[in-house]
């Protein structure tokens, strides 16, 4: 798939920093007033298979430890190809693909909503976002053994996305964005027998808060809590308003099925004889659950907007008719 896009460029995050992303709905605040900080990189926490980010144990301005999730770049065309097919309309600006579908922004919106609703205990906590200096971005690449023929992100005349941070021409000069999280050292990856009963209850709570997590794997839980929201959709989200009802149902069922697969695998690997799925989960995954309160699209996001009318006008202009190709 060609990934070059000279135009249009995406705007860099504003300076001084603002809560992100800058669209109606929940946002994440910067961790420091400038969104910059001294970072001491202590240890890599992720795995080779991680796609969206590099996660490190760090100290920040002499305090810590924290977990710092540093996000790779995605072109808006790539995000449009991945997700645009479910939309019955087209997003009006390239930036909107980043605002609603880029992994960094997806996580910001989840943490923003958990804060609005004072439900931060549902996940491993986030403390805000940071922007890496280019020296820090180079330092991480070097610490992780970037190969010699992987040039520094800003050197080549044209950036094609084939570099450590997947930086494309449209991201030239943009800082790498990162989210500061509570570092969880105990509990380990996944969950234990006591925590397993709560996993479906927690996912239902997320949905009632207007959040569909959409990425349920053992690696995305630590000590029974979710840590990874890079695929999550949080309302207001165009995917809930501008798609067919059957697509929304498909996504709800897919997420429930991911949890079922995960639980059966866990029960087999940990030898849980007589393991039973939580009540209602199987029915939900098969579309037999009639309850509508589990559709995140029904969440009243407008109640948090200072100017509800302006927010509605903004989202009404977020999509435009698709042009026939
Ligand atoms: N707060 C944390 N404390 C300790 N370890 C963490 C923390 N957050 C993440 N990790 C470790 O880093 C790994 C990767 O984190 P995460 O799942 O958030 O990113 P990712 O896998 O790159 O995202 P994606 O799954 O979308 O590709 C986790 O599986 C976990 O082992
Ligand atoms: Mg993950």
What's the short story on this structure?
This protein has 325 residues and is an alpha+beta fold.
Written overview of the protein:
By secondary structure, the chain is α+β, with helices and mostly antiparallel strands. It has one domain (39-320): Transferase(Phosphotransferase), domain 1 (Orthogonal Bundle), CATH 1.10.510. 30% of the residues lie in helices and 14% in strands. The protein has ten helices and eleven strands. The chain has helices at 76-83, 94-101, 103-116, 134-143, 193-196, 198-208, 238-241, 245-269, 281-285, 308-316, and strands spanning 39-44, 53-60, 63-71, 90-91, 126-131, 177-182, 211-212, 221-222, 225-226, 233-234, 319-320. Strands 1-2-3-6-5 form a five-stranded antiparallel beta sheet, covered by helices on one side. Bound molecules: adenosine-5'-triphosphate and magnesium ion.
Number of helices: 10
Number of strands: 11
The kinds of small molecule bound in this structure are: adenosine-5'-triphosphate, magnesium ion
How far apart are the first and last residues' alpha carbons, in Å?
A: 18 Å
CATH architecture: Orthogonal Bundle
In spatial order, strands of the major sheet run 1-2-3-6-5
CATH topology value:
Transferase(Phosphotransferase), domain 1
| The top level CATH class name | Mainly Alpha
- Beta-strand residue fraction: 5-15%
Order of helices and strands: EEEHEHHEHEHHEEEEHHHHE
Number of domains: 1
Mean pLDDT over the residues: 90
Oligomer: single chain
Helix vs. strand class:
alpha+beta
Q: In which range does the helix fraction lie?
A: 25-40%
The major beta sheet can be summarized as: 5 strands, antiparallel
Task: List the uncertain runs.
Answer: 1-6
> What coarse outline follows from CA principal-axis ratios?
globular
Radius of gyration: 20 Å
């Amino acid at each position: 798939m060609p990934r070059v896009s000279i135009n249009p460029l995406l705007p860099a995050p504003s300076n001084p920093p603002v809560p992100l992303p800058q669209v109606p709905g929940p946002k994440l605040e910067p961790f420091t007033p400038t969104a910059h900080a001294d970072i001491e990189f202590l240890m890599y926490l992720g795995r080779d298979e991680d796609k969206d980010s590099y996660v490190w144990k760090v100290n920040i301005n002499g305090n810590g430890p924290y977990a710092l999730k540093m996000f790779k770049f995605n072109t808006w065309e790539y995000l449009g190809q991945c997700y645009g097919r479910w939309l019955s309309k087209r997003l009006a600006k390239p930036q909107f693909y980043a605002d609603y579908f880029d992994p960094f922004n997806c996580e910001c919106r989840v943490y923003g909503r958990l804060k609005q609703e004072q439900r931060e205990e549902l996940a491993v906590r986030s403390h805000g976002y940071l922007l890496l200096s280019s020296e820090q971005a180079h330092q991480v690449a070097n610490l992780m053994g970037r190969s010699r023929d992987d040039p520094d992100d800003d050197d080549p005349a044209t950036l094609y996305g084939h570099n450590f941070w997947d930086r494309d021409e449209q991201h030239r000069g943009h800082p790498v964005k990162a989210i500061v999280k509570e570092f969880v050292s105990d509990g380990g990856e996944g969950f234990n027998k006591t925590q397993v009963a709560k996993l479906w209850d927690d996912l239902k709570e997320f949905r009632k808060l207007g959040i569909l997590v959409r990425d349920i794997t053992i690696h995305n839980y630590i000590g029974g809590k979710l840590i990874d929201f890079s695929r999550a959709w949080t309302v207001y989200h165009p995917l809930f308003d501008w798609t067919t009802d059957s697509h929304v149902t498909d996504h709800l069922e897919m997420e429930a099925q991911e949890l079922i697969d995960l639980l059966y695998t866990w029960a087999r690997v940990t030898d849980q004889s007589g393991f039973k799925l939580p009540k209602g989960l199987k029915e939900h995954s098969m579309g037999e659950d009639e309850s509508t309160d589990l559709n995140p699209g029904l969440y009243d996001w407008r109640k948090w907007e200072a100017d509800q009318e302006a927010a509605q006008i903004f989202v009404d202009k977020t999509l435009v008719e698709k042009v026939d190709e």
